[in-house]
Amino acid sequence: MCKSITALAVGILAESGKIDISAPVYEYITEARTLLPFSKYKSITVDNLLSMSSGVSFAEAGSVTNEDWLRGFFVSAVKMEPGTDFSYNSMNTYVLGAIVSRITGMSLADYVQQNIFAPMGITTSHWEMSPTGLTKAGWGLYMLPEDMAIIGLLFLRRGVWEDKTLVPASWIDYITKKSFDTPESMGRYGYGRHVWIGPRPGSYVCNGLFGQNIIILPDLDSVIVTIGAVDSLFQTCRITDIFHDMLIRAEFSDKQLPPDNAAYTMLNNYLKSLGEYPINTKNELQTHSQTPQNSFLSRITSIFSPQSKKTAHTDPRVPLFCRNLNGVSYDFRGDNVGIIPLTCQMI
């Protein structure tokens, strides 16, 4: 989902002539020219980033150990000729966000808020930043479900919101056409440019982690938002499969159905009942403490500094966050939470 919104920002700048998507990326990230492996990636274009075909191997996992993600991207290996095949990598989107920032002098988050969110009345959102202060772009965006639906309507209306064009219609058409086939484990119908192609002709999906999806069905004039808690990183999950199976060949009449008061009453009663279940607001993680003297960090400190009277909690050589964690372990209260979402949140 974050990637699709980043693509909208790129489209606005492309329409105004500030970004040439056929241009090499180094024209916008100029310091890339000075890095040693320059010859490996000098042919990577902005469009290669959009279509996930840059071939750069520095991916999300590298962000855990490398704080300068731009540099990490430009000094890593390139595993294929750019533009020849699909290779999903959220760092492609991160670089796009950096390009938007370089051109506008604003963070991607601020640019999107000013030019897309605010005109549509979206005021509640948060986008995480990288260690160097750039918007993560490819992930880390928090939005309300109703605002996700508004983004879907912007796509459905081909960039128009209340008679005002926010994103060029030609750009919406461009990024929602298939550019590459994709592995079935990621998506069965291909990839456009920062959107996934859906099974119904003309349909596409703005996909987010763990069941967060905006499904756009132009021929049905419909948008579906899902926020199901699933363990899938891509759109191939049970909740989207249900919608796709229902709608892939569905036909709807233009004629209005006759009123069904009994069904309407049943639906209202069911919707009302959904709010009667207690909401679990407890923290699913519980902590267990041990005495600092017996903790792992304290034992390591005593091994390397046997004569020191400092403990792990007071030794200034030990980072503060390590001292705070010293002697603490965690486990889950129940089995309804996975470790992967928590791990991804830390990246």
Characterization of the model:
With 347 residues, this protein is an alpha+beta fold. Helix content is 35%, strand content 11%. Residues 300-309 have low confidence and may be disordered. The radius of gyration is 24 Å and the shape is globular. 31% of the residues are buried. The longest helix is centred in the first third of the chain and has 15 residues, at 90-104. α1 (2-15) packs across α6 (108-117). Among the domains are: 2-174, Beta-lactamase; 287-330, no CATH class. The chain contains 13 helices and 10 strands. The strands form 4 sheets. A 4-stranded antiparallel sheet has the order 5-6-7-8, covered by helices on one side.
Per CATH, the architecture of the domain at 2-174 is 3-Layer(aba) Sandwich
Fraction of residues in H or I helices: 25-40%
- CATH topology of the domain at 2-174, which one? Beta-lactamase
Q: Please describe the biggest sheet, giving its number of strands, its sense, and whether it closes into a barrel.
A: 4 strands, antiparallel
Specify the CATH homologous superfamily of the domain at 2-174: DD-peptidase/beta-lactamase superfamily
Please state the average pLDDT score. 82
The CATH first-level class of the domain at 2-174 comes to Alpha Beta
Share of residues in strands: 5-15%
Structural shape: globular
| Count of DSSP H/I helices | 13
If you compute it from the alpha carbons, what radius of gyration comes out, rounded to the nearest whole angstrom?
24 Å
User: Order of helices and strands, N to C?
Assistant: HHHHHHEEHEEHEEEEHHEHHEH
Distance between the termini: 17 Å
